[in-house]
Every structure is written in structure tokens, then in C-alpha cells.
Write a structure and sequence with these properties.
The complex is a heterodimer of chains A (554) and B (305). By secondary structure, chain A is α+β, with helices and mostly antiparallel strands. Chain A is built from 17 helices and 17 strands. The longest helix of chain A has 18 residues. Classes of the chains: A alpha+beta (554), B mainly alpha (305).
Chain lengths: 554, 305
């Protein structure tokens, strides 16, 4: 794989005594030096030769090259990485609890071979497998698990569920090298799920001794875990390359010798890389799927992987959307079928309520609820009843999002639909950062903004997102409803799965009747691959990753 | 002369200090990175704690003093997003940008010099018009679009060069050309007008009378004298190319400083934005200073003026 190219030294530049010539010479020499300095081709560069297709059963071979629009922070330390970096972390680390592709906890591929909870639901005991080794050969123990959990739940942790876990966990105790006891402040029936491969990346276990020896920067430069792959190299914002271990205790012999994740922000560049063989898998916008499928590339889809919805902000202020009839009118004014067809290129399904999508039915959401109909006439009537016969004016935010490349067109479409019932939306084109800051600081009275979030199947995850988006105490909330708050709190304190499911069903129905958000659609998350390199891939239903471990299985 | 250099140096330092203050304040006006970093369900306490950890809870003058006093020692702090020393991030990216900028400048020189000279010598002819067309296209076509078209033609269809990223010599061709073509226009037009002035001067007429060949007059005598403004322009633009090639670096996934500052701006990564802007300013101001000193050295009217 390593090769060198001939160095072109270029013509000799004669540098004269005069300053003009000196400057000309300097510029040219700089350019020559630049060219000469590039003589060594990096491993896995495009012309270094494609990896051999011939795989032996004995050892991993070839390089799997994945080009994505973005990959989190690319800092391989779970407490310094966002949820969007979870994919590569699942190859690097083992998690306290494993997961099945459907998102349920598994005793098969996690560090814990079993777990049990005390009768009061507040003490969880995890039994760890013996003999799991970190990549340097030291054994993974409960001490490493305890330390990793403590680190990932520190206040400065940027991990997605750090705040929730910090609020849940009271203390962590190691009773012997293979037994970890976690005591929670309140009954927490979904703790194993929260620390599993299926949720965020908070359950990843790192080697404490190595981390403390090399420090955070040293660890980031040469990360080490016990997963099927170890860290080969990384450049923040550019690439991550992982190298296969000979054998992993759960995954066996990895399929590929290396897995390289590259950040390629521009979609046409990613497509070109797939066409020329510089990438094996690329993330793609939904509108390009049909085109690439027609060109015989293999399309893998995380069906209904994300739910799209629009928030009606600060409903507690004196704003039109504070009135249920207005919210209902806005919901009835949108032709979702058209949006699915023309904005999401058919790669989406209608949904009844946001953020509870079809995955949430497994967690108790009501399957009988139907998507709001398209009825602009009734919408106009409702506005009249609410005292807005001539409509009203408000702001909708438009920003680019890697996960929703259709956002700008979606916002324009919504503005068009609402204009038909007299509601004038002023499109505020900005960056997501600006909109998010406004939202978190309460500067969006009656405004509208749209977002996508993972479709969740786990009751614990569902309650977490409901709390973040709709509980009065959350900085992100659009509601301030004591009734809804009480239901969310009751769900979080429940001591049985049956009870939680019932509460989620109640919340689902309550929100549906409240018209508090504008559900748009459940959208699929597509990837396109070289069919010669990637023949199968179950993207699963886990949160924030695409079941990357399935890619490296034989 | 010495006094002139000291004066210009002090002016440069003042300009840098003023710029550091402006970029420090402006970068903070656009939003708080802690709002982006922490999860949705983070509490107000969590945000305050992170702000304390990042030093963002300090009054702005204190933050500025910490920043500038460390910056003069080469310490630009830690990236808020990357959570590593900014200097490491820059030293990782800067060589790539210098190499790409150098190649782009080389391509520019190779194209712009002959075009500029020929356009001046053949003023008003078809060749002049053609050279102008090349120049106008280079400046008017969006670099983003040019890059994508070049990828489609030369990488995807002809398979002559790679699509993106770094590696061997071939990786420089498309981004270098895309970046260079934009500059060709400016340099070619500057060279053309400068050449026209020089070709009309007395010493060129004298050279012709003395029997110097047409080629010698144009390429040796006229070109040398016409290069002064071109080199000044090119040198300053090279500095901007190195740190400001955001679009080209995005299209070609080139791991340079342009992408770094773009990511820094989007993520409100103040230390990265401050460091890259200051670095750009240092390069531009240094080149300006150098050019001014050289001018003063060769032209006494400047240093005594």
C-alpha cells in the first residue's frame, strides 16, 4: 500500500542580484519546495492501489473508506466527543452493555455478561466478562468502567447524555475486579440501555492507567480501547484511520485491515470519490439516491432513521402560537405528502407526532394516531376563530444542516403553505449556531424552526428527548405545560416498563391533541456504497451511529 | 533608512494589535460556543460550569489580556471544538496550505506572465481578446463551480487525477489550478497594463534603436521593469491564498487553514478564529513591510518623503 512518486524538481531558477528577480525567485522556489514536499504518497491515497478484494478468513484485509459530510469532533475521548462521533467510537471501544441491531440491550457484545437491579430499582449490579483485553494487553476491569463513567458524566463532558446520567447516578462502586455497582438517585429502569452500544457513547470503557499515563492529548493522539479496531491516525476535521486487531472477543476477526473515515463536506466531491473508487461508502442526500441507484451503486438506508419536525417557540408568551387553534391551523395548512414527494424525494414517511416517530410505538406510542390531514380551508377557519382572520406574521429560521440538506427548501415550502392561509413567515437565513443560541436564551417568541432528531425506540431515550424539548425546566423547551411536565416526570420516575409505556402513550396522545409542534415526516438516512466492496450492511436502530460494527463483520 | 524601518515596524505592530482586538470582540459577538457544545438537556449550571472551564466567564478585557499575553509567546490557547492546542492544529494544516498556495502561484505565473506580455505586445488583436477572456472567466466563474467541473472532467471521466485530499503530486493539480486561475486574471491584467506603460517608455525606444531584438526588448528589458507592481500584488495575494482558500479547500477536501477557519467560525471556536486571522495578518503585514522596505531601499523619495 505504501508507494512513492517521483519527485519533480522543476527547472532551475536563476536568482539575480536585483530585488525584483529575488522576489520572483522566492515565489517560484516556494512553489517548487511545496511540490517537492509532497513527494511521498500517504498510505491509502487513491493511487496507492485499491485494497485487495481477496479476503482470507485468517486475517483482515483491505481498507474500508467511508466519506461523510461530518463526523462529530473527531476527538477519540468519549467525554470530549459529541454524539455525532459515536460511529467510529463503537469500533474503538467496548461498551458496558452491548446492543442488538434493533436497539435493545444485549448480553452478547457488551462488557457486561449480565446485570440485575435491586427491588427498589435504585441499585444496578453489572457482572463484567473476564479476559477482555485493551489493545496494549492489559485487562479491562470494573475499575476502568467506573473511572470511564465518572469521566463521561463530569460537568464539562460534551457527551450527549452526560447531563442526564449525572442527574441519575448517585455513586459507582467496584466490589471486585469484575463487578460494578451503580446506585441511582431515583429508580432508573433504563440504566443498562443508557450505557449500551444502542444509546449514546457514554458506556464506552477506556483504559484508565494508559489514559493517566499519557494524558488527554497523548490519548487523543494514540487512542486505545478494547474494541475490534485500534487507533492508527487522526487529523481533526479531516480523517480518522483505525486498524484492525487480529481478533476481537465478540466480533471475531474483523473484515477490513483498516477503516478510514474522511470528512468530505461537499456532496458532489463525495459522489466523485465513489465513482473513482476513492471512497467505498459515502453519506448522501436523499434527492441523489435514485440517480446513484440507477448507476448501479448499492444504496443502504437507515429506514425512518430520523424524525423531522418544526417547533412553535415560546408558546407561553403572548404570541399567536400560544393558541391551540392557531397551532392546529398551522398543522392543517401543510401538505406533508407533497413535502415527502418533492422535498425528501420519496425517502420519507408521514408521521403523526414529533418527536415520537414510528419507532416509539415499541415504547408505548399510540399506533392509532394518524398524520394531520391537509385542510387549508379548515385552517383558515380556525385562524378566524382564534381572532386572526387576516393571518399574522412571524419568523421562520433557515439554516444549513449536515443531517438535513433539504432544510432550506423545506423552510421555503412551509412558508409557501402558510402564506396560503394568510400567515406570513419571514425567512431568517442564518447559521444553526445563531438559531440555537436564540432558542436557548429565549429569543424566539412565536417563531418557527425545524430540526431532525433520531427516531427513538427506547422508552428511556424517548423520555429524555421529551424532557429536553418540552419540559418547562429545559432551556430548549417550546412548551410550559404543567400537565405535560407532570407526565414526563411520572414517566421518568416509573419503576416498570409497562408503566413507562403507558405514560408514553398518554404523552403521545396529549401532544397530538395539543398541536404543539409541526411534525413533518420520518426521513430515511441513505448511504451509497461500492457494491464490490460492501455487499451487506444492517444499519440497525441504534442511536447516533449506523451500526458500524456490522460493516466490519465477515 | 534605519529610522524608516523602525517606524514602519512599529506601525505594523500597532496594526496587528488593533486587529487582534477587533477579531477578539467580533468573534464573541456571534454566539456562545457552550450553547453548541453541551447536550440539549444540559442545565444552566452545566453551561456556567463549562464557561468557567473555558475561561469564558471572565470579563472581556481579562480574556483579551490572557489571549494576547499568551499569543505573543506563541500560545494561542486550546481549540474549543478540537480540545487541543491551536498551534498544533495550525501547524498540522499550514504546511498543506503553503504547498497548495505555492502550486497555485506557480500555475498563475506560468499562465499569467505569457498571457499578460502577449496581450500587451499584441494589443487590440484576437490574441489580446482571448487573453482577456481567459482572465475574465478566471475572475467571474465561481471557484466552487470551477472545482466541481474540473473534478467531473479530469477525475471522474478522464481518470487523470484524484478527486480530493492530499497525497502525491497529482493531488495538487485540480485545486492548484482552480485557485490559480482566479489569480491569473488579476496578474495578467496588471502585467498587461504595466507592460504597455513600459513599452511606451524612452529606454525601450532606445533599446530598439540600438538594435536589440524584439524578443530581447520584450522579455528582458520591458518585462523586468513591468514586474514591480505585479510582484507586489502577487506576494500579498500569496499570503491570502494560504489562509483564505476556503471554497477550494472545501470542494477538494484539502486539509488546509481555510477549512480550519471555516470550521472555527461555524463552531464559534474563538481561539482558532483568532489565531488564524492573526496569522493571516502577520503574513500580509510582513509581506507589506518587506515590500515597503525594499521600495524604500531602491527609491530614496519614499524613505525621505
Amino acid at each position: 500500500m505504501h508507494s512513492k512518486m517521483a519527485v519533480s524538481t522543476g527547472p532551475n531558477i536563476s536568482i539575480g542580484p536585483k530585488w525584483k528577480e529575488l522576489l520572483v525567485g522566492s515565489t517560484a522556489v516556494l512553489a517548487m519546495l511545496a511540490v517537492a514536499a509532497t513527494s511521498v504518497v500517504e498510505p491509502h491515497a487513491v493511487f496507492a492501489g485499491a485494497p485487495s478484494a481477496a479476503q482470507t478468513s485468517a486475517r483482515p484485509t483491505g481498507d474500508l473508506r467511508i466519506a461523510m459530510a461530518g463526523i462529530g469532533i473527531m476527538r477519540p475521548i468519549p467525554w470530549q466527543e459529541t454524539a455525532f462521533g459515536k460511529g467510529y467510537l463503537t469500533l474503538l471501544y467496548d461498551f458496558l452493555v452491548g446492543a442488538n441491531p434493533d436497539g435493545s440491550p444485549s448480553t452478547e457484545n457488551g462488557v457486561s455478561e449480565k446485570w440485575e437491579v435491586s427491588p427498589d430499582g435504585k441499585t444496578w449490579t453489572f457482572s463484567l466478562r473476564k479476559g477482555i483485553k485493551f489493545h496494549d494487553g492489559t485487562e479491562l476491569t470494573a475499575q476502568d468502567a467506573k473511572w470511564s463513567l465518572e469521566m463521561v458524566t463530569r460537568p464539562e463532558s460534551v457527551a450527549g447524555f452526560a447531563a442526564r446520567l449525572r442527574g441519575t447516578i448517585q455513586e459507582i462502586e467496584v466490589t471486585n475486579p469484575y463487578t460494578l455497582v451503580i446506585r441511582t438517585k431515583e429508580p432508573s429502569i433504563f440504566l443498562p440501555q443508557d450505557l449500551s452500544l444502542a444509546s449514546g457513547h457514554e458506556g464506552a470503557i477506556l483504559p484508565r492507567a494508559y489514559y493517566e499515563k499519557v494524558g488527554a492529548d497523548g490519548f487523543a493522539a494514540k487512542a486505545m480501547g478494547s474494541g475490534p479496531y485500534t487507533w492508527a491516525k487522526g487529523q481533526t476535521g479531516i480523517l480518522i484511520q483505525l486498524e484492525a486487531m487480529d481478533r476481537h472477543w465478540a466480533e471475531g476477526i474483523p473484515k477490513f485491515k483498516t477503516v478510514t473515515y474522511r470528512v468530505i463536506p461537499e456532496e458532489s466531491t463525495r459522489i466523485a470519490m465513489l465513482q473513482t473508487g476513492e471512497a467505498d461508502i459515502i453519506s448522501i442526500s436523499r434527492e441523489r439516491v435514485a440517480d446513484l441507484q440507477a448507476r448501479n451503486f448499492k444504496v443502504f438506508v437507515k429506514e425512518r432513521g430520523s424524525v423531522m419536525g418544526c417547533y412553535l417557540h415560546q408558546q407561553w408568551d403572548q404570541v399567536p402560537v400560544g393558541d391551540t387553534r392557531v397551532r392546529q391551523a398551522l398543522n392543517l395548512a401543510i401538505n406533508r405528502e407533497e413535502i415527502v414527494r418533492f422535498i425528501f424525494a420519496g425517502q420519507a414517511k408521514l408521521m403523526a407526532m414529533y418527536p415520537l416517530g414510528s419507532f416509539a410505538i415499541a415504547a408505548g406510542a399510540d399506533p392509532e394516531l394518524k398524520p394531520y390531514p391537509y385542510d387549508p380551508q379548515k385552517a383558515r377557519q380556525l385562524l378566524q376563530e382564534a381572532g386572526y382572520p387576516n393571518g399574522f406574521e412571524t419568523t421562520i429560521y433557515s439554516y444549513a444542516r449536515e443531517d438535513v440538506p433539504e432544510m432550506v427548501r423545506l423552510v421555503e415550502a412551509i412558508a409557501g403553505y402558510l402564506a396560503k392561509i394568510g400567515v406570513k413567515l419571514n425567512i431568517f437565513s442564518t447559521e444553526y449556531t445563531v438559531a440555537r443560541t436564540k432558542r436557548m436564551t429565549g429569543k424566539m417568541p412565536g417563531h418557527i424552526s425545524c430540526l431532525g432528531t433520531p427516531n427513538r425506540a427506547n422508552p428511556g431515550d424517548i423520555l429524555t428527548i421529551l424532557h429536553a424539548l418540552h419540559h418547562s425546566s429545559s432551556r430548549f423547551t417550546d412548551h410550559k405545560s404543567p400537565e405535560l411536565d407532570a407526565m414526563i416526570e411520572k414517566g421518568m420516575a416509573a419503576t416498570s416498563v409497562t408503566e413507562v409505556k403507558k405514560i408514553i402513550g398518554d404523552i403521545h396522545r396529549w401532544m397530538y391533541a395539543d398541536y404543539g409542534t409541526m411534525p413533518i415526516a420520518e426521513v430515511s438516512i441513505p448511504f451509497v456504497a461500492d457494491p464490490k466492496k460492501v455487499t451487506r450492511w444492517d444499519l440497525g436502530r441504534t442511536l447516533y451511529d449506523n451500526n458500524d460494527r456490522d460493516l466490519i463483520r465477515r | 533608512m534605519q529610522r524608516y524601518i523602525v517606524k514602519r515596524f512599529l506601525q505594523s505592530v500597532i496594526a496587528l494589535l488593533a486587529l487582534s482586538m477587533i477579531i477578539f470582540v467580533l468573534s464573541r459577538l456571534t454566539g456562545d460556543p457552550t450553547m453548541l457544545m453541551l447536550p440539549d438537556d444540559a442545565s444552566h449550571e452545566d453551561i456556567l460550569q463549562l464557561q468557567r472551564a473555558l475561561g469564558l466567564d471572565q470579563p472581556l478585557p481579562v480574556q483579551y489580556w490572557i489571549f494576547i499575553s499568551r499569543a505573543v509567546q506563541g500560545d494561542f490557547g486550546r481549540s474549543i471544538k478540537g480540545q487541543m492546542p491551536v498551534i498544533d492544529l495550525i501547524s498540522d494544516r499550514l504546511p498543506n496550505s503553503i504547498k497548495l498556495g505555492g502550486v497555485a502561484m506557480l500555475i498563475t505565473v506560468v499562465l499569467a506572465f505569457p498571457l499578460g506580455v502577449i496581450a500587451a505586445v499584441k494589443k487590440g488583436t484576437f490574441i489580446d481578446s482571448l487573453a482577456n477572456l481567459v482572465a475574465v472567466l478566471g475572475q467571474s466563474l465561481p471557484q466552487f463551480w470551477v472545482g466541481i467541473v474540473l473534478i467531473q472532467v479530469f477525475a471522474v471521466h478522464l481518470r487523470l487525477v484524484p478527486v480530493a485530499g492530499t497525497g502525491g503530486l497529482a493531488h495538487y493539480i485540480l485545486p492548484g489550478f482552480t485557485l490559480g486561475w482566479f489569480l491569473v486574471a488579476g496578474i495578467m491584467r496588471l502585467l498587461r497594463s504595466s507592460m504597455l506603460d513600459v513599452l511606451d517608455s524612452e529606454f525601450i525606444k532606445l533599446a530598439r534603436i540600438k538594435g536589440v531584438s524584439a524578443r530581447g526588448v520584450i522579455w528582458k528589458h520591458a518585462l523586468k521593469n513591468a514586474l514591480i507592481p505585479v510582484i507586489t500584488f502577487g506576494a500579498i495575494y500569496l499570503a491570502i491564498l494560504i489562509t483564505g482558500a476556503i471554497l477550494v479547500e472545501t470542494v477538494f477536501a484539502w486539509p488546509g487553514v481555510g477549512q480550519l477557519i471555516y470550521q472555527g467560525i461555524v463552531y464559534r471556536d474563538f481561539p482558532v478564529v483568532q489565531a488564524v486571522v492573526l496569522l493571516t495578518a502577520v503574513i500580509v503585514i510582513s509581506v507589506n513591510l518587506l515590500v515597503d522596505i525594499i521600495y524604500a531601499y531602491i527609491d530614496p523619495r519614499i524613505r525621505f518623503g
